[in-house]
Amino acid sequence: MSLMKLFCAILTPWLMAPPLMAKPMPSGRPTPIELRALPDYCQARFGTDEGARKAFSQRLGPSHYLHIHHHCIGLNLLNRSKVTFDKTMRNYYLKNAVGEFSYVLARWPADFLLTAEARDGKAIAEALLSTASKRR
Fold first, then answer.
1. What angle (nearest 5°) sits at the alpha carbon of residue 131, between those of residues 75 and 34?
2. What is the domain range of residue 52?
């Protein structure tokens, strides 16, 4: 095998690989450590205590609790955005937080217990995004 063929055989897989930035972005689902910073209803939703999950489902209403994980992910992404120094990741977290809060706001009634919190979370994420874009 010639040196050129060997060189091409070694480099071709590297050149054909997707760029490093094409890797999947992280999920908004909280890690066990992040979960501790979230409200009790999020800990119930993502935790292993089935009794706590059922209790919050009854307290908040099953049709509203059905969507609670989107709200919790929005809160978690907002928290992550505040502790990351990478601008691209911060914007990613904030944009996705806006999406998660928008999801629940489209499904929860205005008088639901957590609607105002979701509205506030969305407003904070949008304000932080707006501030970041003005700094460029």
1. 20
2. 29-134
